[in-house]
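Exercise 7b. Backbone tokens:
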């Protein structure tokens, strides 16, 4: 992790403490604290050190591997319950635990989330077969040796209509544009600004009822990472790990939660929704996508 007396990441030759070091304000009594202590005390954010980063990276790599293999099984005629059971088996074989299983209240009943067409997120796998023209989000997270990895991606089942193709691409582009701006010193709010700007320019909306989140030591940590314009101006610093997972709707941003299972979120107008997710580490010079599969 970069220290206060190290050269600033921006390359101007000044020490970090004299340049882009996050300013806690002249009246803040925690000004003497290091970055890790300051961020934990002021924001509740765990700044990870190298040992934890390595372990989170391994969990993220496993999550990415299992997500990719599970998505490769998705095709017309396959049920989301079959996808769930496949991912669950791979998780146990790897010596890991599915993070979603029994999480929350009421406890989530399955090991992955499978959100189809107008389902925004938290779809529960069932015995209904996927069909030609569906779009599917598979959201997968695991716990490996006590550390968490979290990611999701879209799958198009056969040939899908233009509206679905569009929202899937816009969601992907929103994620990529948001990741590109991530580096030390950038305010967290820039992520939501970039996403909402692109989504609106593409005639889509951004869901504002769910957010990205810190991850690694716990499934959901601080900070919250809104995907829309917001006033969370916490500067990004090396050692921060969080998800970016914009939920983009082809129609209105409003949604409804299933009154029976209390999990499944659907677009209010029945139009399709899409989401992609990566876990991001802020490094000394920029960022690392932990859930991109390594070539090693």
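Sequence design result:
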């Amino acid at each position: 992790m970069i220290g206060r007396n190290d050269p600033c990441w921006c390359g101007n030759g000044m020490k970090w403490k004299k340049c882009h070091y996050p300013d806690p304000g002249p009246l803040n009594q925690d000004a003497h604290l290091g970055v890790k202590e300051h961020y934990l005390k002021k924001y509740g954010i765990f700044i990870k050190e190298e040992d934890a980063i390595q372990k989170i990276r391994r969990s993220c790599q496993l999550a990415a591997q299992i997500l990719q293999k599970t998505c490769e099984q998705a095709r017309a005629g396959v049920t989301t319950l079959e996808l769930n059971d496949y991912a669950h088996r791979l998780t146990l074989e790897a010596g890991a635990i599915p993070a979603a299983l029994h999480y929350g209240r009421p406890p989530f009943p399955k090991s992955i989330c499978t959100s189809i067409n107008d389902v925004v997120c938290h779809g529960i796998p069932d015995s209904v077969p996927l069909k030609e023209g569906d779009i599917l989000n598979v959201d997968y997270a695991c716990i490996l040796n006590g550390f968490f990895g979290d990611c999701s991606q879209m799958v198009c089942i056969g040939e899908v209509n233009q509206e679905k193709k569009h929202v899937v691409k816009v969601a992907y582009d929103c994620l990529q544009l948001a990741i590109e701006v991530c580096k030390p010193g950038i305010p967290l709010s820039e992520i939501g600004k970039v996403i909402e700007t692109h989504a609106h320019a593409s005639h889509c909306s951004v869901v504002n009822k769910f957010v990205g989140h810190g991850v690694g030591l716990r499934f959901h940590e601080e900070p919250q990472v809104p995907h829309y314009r917001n006033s969370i101006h916490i500067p990004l610093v090396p050692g921060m790990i969080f998800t970016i997972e914009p939920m983009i709707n082809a129609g209105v941003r409003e949604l409804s939660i299933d009154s029976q299972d209390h999990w499944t979120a659907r677009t209010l107008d029945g139009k399709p929704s899409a989401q992609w997710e990566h876990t991001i580490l802020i490094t000394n010079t920029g960022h690392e996508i932990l859930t991109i599969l390594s070539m090693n």
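Instructor comment: Residues 168 and 237 are 30 Å apart (CA to CA). The chain has a mean pLDDT of 92.
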